[in-house]
TrEMBL record:
Pfam families in the cross-refs: MazE-like (PF11455)
Taxonomy, superkingdom: Bacteria
Organism field: Telmatospirillum siberiense
Name of protein: DUF3018 domain-containing protein
Cited InterPro entries: MazE-like
Length: 74
């Protein structure tokens, strides 16, 4: 009698992968990302950018950002 090979579900593959990582000592990590399309995110980002621009150190902060940024010139 021939055995029928069943493919593993995605859930099972992920579980096995996570089990292997845990066995190697890697802790599980969850990353939460903000929904940048949400109106509340846009409002908070705008409010924070205004606060940074109005700070006493705005020019120093911008100089730092410019120094560590690629700038896209290359």
């Amino acid at each position: 009698m021939a055995s029928v090979s069943q493919s593993k579900t995605s859930r099972l593959k992920v579980r096995e992968h996570r089990d292997r990582l845990r066995a190697e000592g890697w802790p599980p990590i969850r990353t939460w990302m903000a929904d940048v399309r949400a109106p509340s995110f846009r409002a908070a980002a705008h409010r924070q950018s205004l606060a940074v621009a109005a700070s006493a150190r705005a020019s120093e902060d911008q100089a730092f950002i410019d120094a560590v940024s690629d700038g896209g010139d290359e």
